[in-house]
Design a protein that fits this description.
Structural class: alpha/beta
CATH topology of the largest domain: Rossmann fold
Number of strands: 5
Helix content: 55-70%
Strand order of the largest sheet: 2-1-3-4-5
Length: 213
């Protein structure tokens, strides 16, 4: 098994203990950092994403995989910076005002980071003004809105309405237990994601695989 396969398998297995050793070895062997990132770490997270989407693994396995991926990423992060490797895009995500749930949001963040995106975590109970502020100050390409409570769905609608003035700059993806594709269309969102793996696919579709750095 190649060193890249070993790194990928460590991510899939959530083996944070061994992944540092393998990633260090890949660097010592002179492998290009972009290959380590894409064919090792991200490849592993992509597989976990597919398994999660098909209900073949569950939240604990995703958390373990993300932990292993971040352990390997810490090894090559200085090399990524020096090599000028560009992230796929910037996503700002938060749970809307009135809702304190964050498990789904955090899963989406882990999957997006594992797929090579920069993610700005706005937290929970996020007011409309904070979403507007992050667009003005940090210029994400995607805004992600999460809600678990049906009572906060009107808040999601208000945020989408207020963000329409930035329609030429951003795309909006919504998700959460009570959210449906029909509701997403009705409020004018650009995408709907029923789960974390689909969220990554939708972001990739809306950004078009471009780099914005």
């Amino acid at each position: 098994m190649s060193i890249l396969e070993q790194i990928k398998e460590c991510v899939i297995a959530g083996n944070a203990k061994n992944i540092k050793e393998y990633t260090d070895r890949a660097v010592a062997d002179g492998l290009d950092v972009s290959i380590i990132l894409n064919d090792g770490l991200i490849a592993g997270m992509n597989i976990i994403g597919g398994l999660f989407k098909n209900n073949e693994v569950y939240v604990p396995e995703v958390l373990m995989a993300a932990r292993a991926m971040h352990t390997g990423l810490a090894v090559i992060k200085p090399l990524i910076v020096s090599a000028g490797i560009k992230e796929k895009g910037v996503v700002a995500i938060g749970t809307v005002k009135g809702d304190m749930h964050d498990i789904g949001k955090n899963l989406v963040i882990m999957m997006l980071e594992g797929a090579g995106y920069k993610v700005i975590d706005l937290g929970v109970d996020v007011p409309t003004e904070k979403f507007l502020q992050v667009v003005e100050e940090q210029h994400p390409q995607i805004i992600g809105l999460s809600a678990l409570l049906t009572t906060t769905m009107p808040q999601m609608q208000e945020i989408v309405k207020r963000l329409q003035e930035y329609d030429n700059q951003i795309k909006i993806v919504v998700g959460g237990a009570p959210i449906t594709e029909k509701f997403a269309r009705e409020i004018g969102a650009d995408g709907y994601a029923p789960d974390a793996a689909t969220a990554v696919e939708k972001v990739a579709e809306l950004i078009g695989g471009k780099s914005f750095f």
